[in-house]
Write a structure and sequence with these properties.
Elements lengths: L1 H7 L5 H38 L17 H6 L5 H5 L23 H7 L2 H42 L5 H7 L5 H14 L8 H21 L2 H33 L4 H11 L1 H44 L3
Helix pairs in contact: 2-12, 6-7, 6-10, 6-12, 8-9, 8-12, 9-12, 10-11, 10-12
Length: about 325
C-alpha cells in the first residue's frame, strides 16, 4: 500500500496542517496566559485594597509643661493676655473609611449574600456555564489528541502492512480510521448495480462514514460557542438588575451622596465581570477545538481518498 501511495504521487496533507496547528496552539496559549495574568493582577489589587487598614491619625499630645515646686515658685505670674488665651483645641480624628476584608460591605461575597434570588440565579447560571466549558474542553482535547495519535499509527503501521486486513487489525478498535477502513472494505465487497459503479459506491460509503466521524468530533463544541455569546449578556442582566435595586434603595433612603451611589452601583458591575470571565475562555477554547477538528477532518479525508484508490486499483 505504501508503494501505491508513492506511485500515485499523493502526499499526506497533515504535515502542513500540523505545523499551522502548532502555531495556532502557541497563539491561543499565549492569549490564555495573558488573560490569566491580568485576572490574577486585578484580583491581587482588589485583595490588597480590601485588606489594607490605614492607621487612624493619632491625636497630637498637648501635655502641659510640668515643673518641680521650686521651679513653679520661681515662675512669674501669668500676664492677662496669657490668662485669657484659649486652650489648645482638641485634635480632630478623620473618619476611617477602610474596612477589613471580612467586613467589606462591597465585593463578590457581599454581592451574592445580600442579593436577591435573581442575582443569585445569575451567578449560579454563570458558574454552571464555566464548569461546563472547562469540562467539555478537556474531554474534547483528550479525544482529539487520541485521534491524532491514531493518525500517526496509520502512517507507521497501516500502509506498511502486508495486506489490507492486516493493516486494519493493526489499528485500535475505537479508532475513526479503522471504522473508515472497514466501511470501505464492506463497500468494495458489495456488488455494484448498473446505475452506480464500484468507484462511486465506495466513495459514497466512505463519505457517509466521514460525515459520522465529523458529527462525532463536533459534539459538545457548540456549547462553547453558546457560552461565549450568551455569558456576557447574562452578566449584563445581573448588572442591570443590581443597579435597579441599588437605585430603589437609594431612593427609599433619600440619600444621594456619592458614597451611597458609587458603592451599590459599582458592586452591581461584578456580574458583568463574571460574565466576561466565563465568556472569554469559552471563545478561546471553541476556536482552538474547531481548528483541531479541521486538521482531523483533513487527515480522515486524505486517508479515505488513498483507501479508495487502493480498493479500486486493487494494487499494493
Amino acid at each position: 500500500m505504501e508503494a501505491a501511495m508513492k506511485k500515485s504521487g499523493k502526499t499526506p496533507l497533515w504535515e502542513s496542517t500540523y505545523r499551522s496547528e502548532t502555531k495556532m496552539t502557541i497563539r491561543y496559549l499565549a492569549i490564555a496566559a495573558a488573560v490569566a495574568f491580568l485576572s490574577a493582577v486585578g484580583a491581587g489589587q482588589g485583595l490588597a485594597q480590601q485588606s489594607a487598614n490605614p492607621p487612624a491619625a493619632a491625636a497630637p499630645a498637648s501635655a502641659a509643661p510640668t515643673g518641680t515646686p521650686d521651679q513653679g515658685a520661681a515662675t512669674p505670674a501669668a500676664t492677662p493676655d496669657a490668662a485669657t488665651a484659649p486652650a489648645n483645641p482638641p485634635a480632630v480624628t478623620p473618619p476611617t473609611t477602610a474596612v477589613s476584608g471580612g467586613n467589606n460591605p462591597y465585593g463578590l461575597y457581599a454581592f451574592v449574600r445580600t442579593g436577591d434570588w435573581v442575582i443569585r440565579g445569575v451567578v449560579v447560571i454563570l458558574a454552571i456555564m464555566s464548569i461546563g466549558t472547562w469540562y467539555i474542553f478537556f474531554m474534547k482535547f483528550w479525544e482529539q489528541s487520541r485521534v491524532l495519535n491514531h493518525a500517526r499509527v496509520v502512517e507507521r503501521r497501516f500502509w506498511s502492512s502486508a495486506n489490507l486486513n492486516e493493516g486494519i487489525d493493526k489499528l485500535p478498535k475505537n479508532s475513526l480510521f479503522r471504522s473508515v477502513a472497514e466501511s470501505g472494505v464492506r463497500a468494495s465487497a458489495g456488488q455494484a448495480t448498473g446505475l452506480v459503479n464500484l468507484n462511486d459506491w465506495i466513495g459514497m460509503s466512505l463519505n457517509r462514514q466521514l460525515e459520522e466521524a465529523n458529527a462525532r468530533m463536533q459534539g459538545g463544541v457548540a456549547f462553547l460557542a453558546s457560552v461565549g455569546s450568551v455569558a456576557p449578556f447574562v452578566g449584563l442582566f445581573g448588572t442591570v438588575w443590581g443597579i435597579l435595586n441599588a437605585l430603589i434603595g437609594i431612593g427609599i433612603a433619600g440619600q444621594a451622596s456619592i458614597d451611597k451611589v458609587a458603592g451599590p452601583v459599582g458592586e452591581a458591575l461584578i456580574a458583568t465581570a463574571i460574565g466576561l470571565f466565563v465568556a472569554v475562555p469559552a471563545v478561546l477554547c471553541y476556536n482552538y477545538l474547531v481548528r483541531r477538528n479541521k486538521v482531523i477532518n483533513e487527515r480522515l479525508r486524505s486517508f479515505a481518498s488513498d483507501l479508495q484508490t487502493y480498493l479500486i486499483t486493487n494494487k499494493k
